[in-house]
Amino acid sequence: MKNLSYIILDGNLTSDPEEKTIAGGKSLAHFTVAVNHSQNNPDSKEKDDVSFFEVEAWEKLGENCVEYLKKGSKVTVMGNLKQNRWKTPDGENKSKVKVTASTVRFDSMRKREEKVA
């Protein structure tokens, strides 16, 4: 039986998405979504109840994110959790959990201004 690691995030981008091309020519966009938990509970007195999730979006989905999203944009991201593990040069084990987006809903869509060369 296949295990499930699906997540849905509703929040705002903390910075503009960044795009890069990896080996093999595939494009990848990275961005971080801030999710405010106190919004979901009006009785909460916590002001700093925010979680930050790193998101990666591949190919056309990532290209659309780079074109239409910017810092502060409201999004709903659906995707899978992925844990990356590595060793530092001094032998310390490290890991980071990211979200690999399958869908990104642009809840406050505005086309980014064209960059002037």
Automatic annotation (TrEMBL):
Keyword DNA-binding: yes
Top-rank lineage group of the source organism: Bacteria
Gene3D superfamilies recorded: Nucleic acid-binding proteins
Pfam name, any one: SSB
Tagged with keyword Flavoprotein: no
This protein's GO CC annotations: nucleoid
Organism annotation: Leptospira biflexa serovar Patoc (strain Patoc 1 / ATCC 23582 / Paris)
An example molecular function term from Gene Ontology annotations: single-stranded DNA binding
GO-annotated biological processes: DNA replication
Cross-referenced PANTHER family: SINGLE-STRANDED DNA-BINDING PROTEIN
UniProt name for this protein: Single-stranded DNA-binding protein
